[in-house]
Automatic annotation (TrEMBL):
One of its GO terms (cellular component) is cell envelope. This is Imelysin. The lineage of its organism: Bacteria, Pseudomonadati, Spirochaetota, Spirochaetia, Leptospirales. Keywords: Signal. CDD domains: Imelysin_IrpA-like.
Amino acid sequence: MRNIQTKIFSILFSITLFGSLISCGGPGSDNSAAALLGLDIPASATKTQALTRYADLAYESYNQAATDAGSLLTALTTFTTTPNETNLTAARNAWVVARSSYLVTEAFRFSDGPIDGTTGHCGAPGGSDYSGTDDCEGAINAWPLDEVVIDNYISSLSSTPTFANIYAKNGDSTLASGSEGDTEKVVMTGYHAIEYLLWGQDNTNSGDNTVPGQRPATDFSGSGIPSYRRAYILAVTQGLIGHLQQVRDQWDPAGSGTYRTDTFLTSGNTDTSLGLVFTGLTSFMVQEWGGDRLSGVDSELQEDEHSCFSDTTKADFYYDAQGVYNIWTGNYSIKKGVNISTGAGLVNLLSSKNQGSITSQIESARDTFCINLDNETTDPNYTTSCPGGSLSHRYDQVIMHPADSQHSVLENVGLLINTTLAQNVVRAKNVLGL
């Protein structure tokens, strides 16, 4: 009798322990408890559920980016009305916040969606209508940017510029004359144009305790060029909001005739859409997040820092990782550990044994970058205490000095993103037969 009771107790204890371990894992966990017990938990979501959640995430993410860009415009309106150092700092802080909510949307790229798909949705045909047939990503976040072209344009003005006029100058070879001469760097709109206008050139290039661009508020004070500069930054910020709204509206769950309703979630298109999602993620990892963004590790050039005027490039990497994490887990988050909404992610399409270590690898890539600079105090993940092994030094100083003690951190995270993680996501795609 005692042996039977012991066996029953052991079975009940194992079931209870297993249940508690699994429940602690939560959505998107690596199911290490299941692996420990040699079990394979079935997938917990259908393809349709995962695709619908992806579409909802896209709408929610772009909507937040547009909202925060609106707050940036409010801060810039105050600053351009009263150009002083206090209002300039407030505008820079608003840019930092707006930038974080946009960066988590970058994981939606390369999936033939509204942000950079074959069908463009952005432009500047006139008035307040920012729709068009151009690639939205290029209008919103084109990089690298040759700052001289913006100065050349503003210096050539004799009247207040409109967004349509500014937008038309993207890629204008005449503005590239006398600068780097690369028309692809003639970028007149988007986050980085605003960043340059707020911070100016970063001319500090030595030591770990240097600073970002130091543009004074007086650059926006007075008539002539300062007045054109004021008009320029307001116009491109209004355009930024308009373009973000164009992308957002293509994902609107209440919309009709949109990419969401007519392509992404159409009946019979499930595997195609899901395949594009997985392909987009791996392309983003290899080409952008773990590719071009890390080009400075090899070139050792300060100009290869992505957000080179504000020195906030570590945030670019952090939130790119968070965006991938959001799609993978189905949870929308900007601040670490705080879920704004939850749902079925790509991870939920896989059984526990097929999930591998993708979730923890994304977290590791994200947490490699510590957002700790003095000009990033409004960043949702700003900290004064960087975890061991993370990149706590200034990004531009690390890439410019291969002997920097943290240079290997960037080399290692590059391998993690564009090799290990990308390959594991491809394997997950293959498991699903996409």
